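User: Just a sanity check before I run the rest of the batch. Below are the structure tokens for the first item. I only need the designed sequence back.
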């Protein structure tokens, strides 16, 4: 008996087979009456990252490679030391022991010089240093050797090129390579080791060059996009991008440190190359990298365009840079020093000593003075003072605001010329340390003193290792010259000055200490005991 209401198994199998065949035909591109639905592909609507292509295409013709040749003997390249950090002849090992970079390496296990340690980024672009020497034996012409390779950029259509001083400093012949591969001879117009800048000039009257302008770097903010273009490892025409990661960096390279820190990849050969904003303007010139390996680790430093603009203009005009010179040794004003002097804020520059015959000394600036302003412009710190004085130029008359003996004063000064007037002070012979005197002890400060043999100041004969004086670095054999800017020749003199400071409500006193080689510094010590 047949079940009329239900299809047979044969009918069901036949229908299933037909449906499967239709699916196969559809997936094979053969028309079918049965279609198959698919899920939609992933699509995300989100803000798109900016493209740097327009900036790069516009500025690339202005960026060049700089090849330097020299007839000097090769200098061996210590490849064992690979921290890329050295500036203007001052290596990592010459930085003060309390410099933040040295503390960084000690705390995080970095190698000091002597192992895989500090090597100059000034030397980062040296090429073929260990190659065969070209000797002139009289039988064949003298040949120049490759000395360095870096980057640069045009700042005028008639062929002026900006690069780093450390790229060209050892050179006697220069070649500029354009982004299309054209090689052009160039001449050195001028260089400035203090800011690590140099200017070359390409002689090519038959053509005009694409050039770029300096940006107003005061508008550059931490977090802004930047693009670096240069010649890393001799590859040429390489572009990297990143952000401004810090401003106003002092890395111990000189008195005018004010670097822009970027995290764009900068490597050997990028030195002298530009860092651009998204408008195609130069915000900085790449000059140094910070690296334990010699390669990029995301910390690079660029000379701000505001600094470069003025220096480059002077180099193009005179081939050199003349700077104003005050002639005083200075140090920062810490909060302890400010408290000891009665200053409300820890700002300004503390005068350790005026140089003999300097404009500052002739004008009456004394050790222990705090320079708080120049021509009415407040001085933030010692580095700020150095930059401001240099910017005025030589023979400029300025008004210097001082804090002396708890009062504000103004002194007119005619600045000298740093280039011609600066001279190293003579180092007098240190007298032998006198014998300790038990009745000259300053127990409350943890130091023992005796009259100095030369009659000037007090020799430190002992320092309590648990005292704050020891913590502040005071050592046996050093000499206390003054306390709160008062000359002292006995422990009694010190006691009188400290007593007056207590009456004035101060909690610290400022000790001027002379160390080895007649170096001098100020140390603020607590006086609320005894």
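Assistant: Here's the designed sequence for the first item:
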């Amino acid at each position: 008996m047949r079940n009329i209401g239900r299809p047979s198994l044969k009918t069901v199998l036949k229908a299933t087979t037909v449906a499967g065949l239709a699916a196969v035909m559809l997936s094979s591109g053969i028309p079918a009456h049965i279609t198959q639905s698919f899920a939609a592909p992933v699509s995300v609507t989100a803000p798109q990252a900016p493209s740097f292509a327009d900036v790069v295409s516009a500025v690339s013709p202005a960026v060049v490679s700089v090849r330097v040749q020299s007839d000097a003997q090769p200098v061996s390249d210590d490849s064992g030391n690979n921290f890329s950090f050295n500036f203007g002849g001052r290596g990592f090992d010459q930085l003060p022991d309390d410099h933040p970079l040295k503390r960084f390496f000690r705390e995080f296990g970095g190698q000091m010089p002597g192992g895989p340690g500090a090597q100059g980024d000034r030397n980062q672009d040296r090429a073929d240093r260990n190659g065969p020497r070209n000797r002139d034996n009289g039988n064949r012409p003298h040949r120049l050797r490759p000395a360095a390779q870096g980057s640069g950029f045009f700042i005028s259509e008639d062929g002026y090129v900006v690069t780093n001083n450390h790229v060209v400093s050892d050179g006697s012949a220069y070649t500029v390579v354009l982004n299309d591969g054209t090689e052009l001879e160039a001449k050195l117009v001028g260089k400035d080791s203090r800011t690590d800048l140099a200017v070359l000039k390409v002689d090519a009257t038959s053509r005009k060059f694409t050039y770029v302008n300096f940006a107003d770097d005061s508008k550059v903010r931490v977090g802004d996009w930047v693009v670096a273009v240069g010649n890393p490892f001799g590859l040429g025409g390489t572009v990297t991008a990143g952000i401004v990661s810090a401003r106003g960096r002092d890395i111990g390279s000189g008195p005018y440190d004010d670097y822009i820190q970027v995290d764009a990849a900068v490597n050997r050969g990028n030195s002298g190359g530009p860092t651009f904003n998204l408008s195609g303007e130069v915000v900085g010139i790449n000059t140094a990298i910070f690296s334990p390996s010699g390669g990029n680790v995301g910390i690079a430093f660029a000379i701000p365009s505001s600094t470069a603009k003025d220096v480059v203009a002077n180099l193009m005009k005179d081939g050199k840079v003349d700077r104003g010179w005050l002639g005083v040794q200075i140090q920062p004003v810490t909060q302890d020093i400010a408290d000891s002097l009665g200053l409300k804020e820890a700002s300004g520059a503390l005068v350790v000593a005026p140089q003999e015959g300097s404009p500052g000394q002739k004008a009456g600036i004394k050790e222990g003075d705090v320079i708080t302003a120049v021509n009415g412009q407040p001085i933030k710190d010692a580095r700020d003072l150095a930059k401001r004085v240099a910017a005025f130029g030589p023979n400029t008359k300025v008004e210097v605001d001082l804090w002396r003996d708890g009062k504000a004063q103004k002194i007119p000064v005619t600045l000298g010329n740093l280039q011609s007037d600066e001279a190293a002070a003579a180092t007098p012979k240190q007298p032998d340390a006198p014998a300790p005197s038990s009745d000259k002890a300053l127990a409350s400060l943890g130091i023992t003193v005796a009259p100095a043999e030369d009659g000037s100041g007090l020799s430190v004969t002992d320092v309590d290792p648990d005292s704050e004086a020891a913590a502040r670095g005071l050592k046996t054999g050093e000499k206390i010259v003054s306390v709160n800017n008062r000359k002292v020749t006995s422990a009694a003199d010190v006691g009188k000055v400290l007593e007056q400071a207590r009456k004035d409500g101060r909690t610290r006193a400022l000790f001027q200490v002379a160390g080895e080689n007649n170096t001098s510094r100020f140390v603020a010590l607590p006086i609320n005991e005894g």
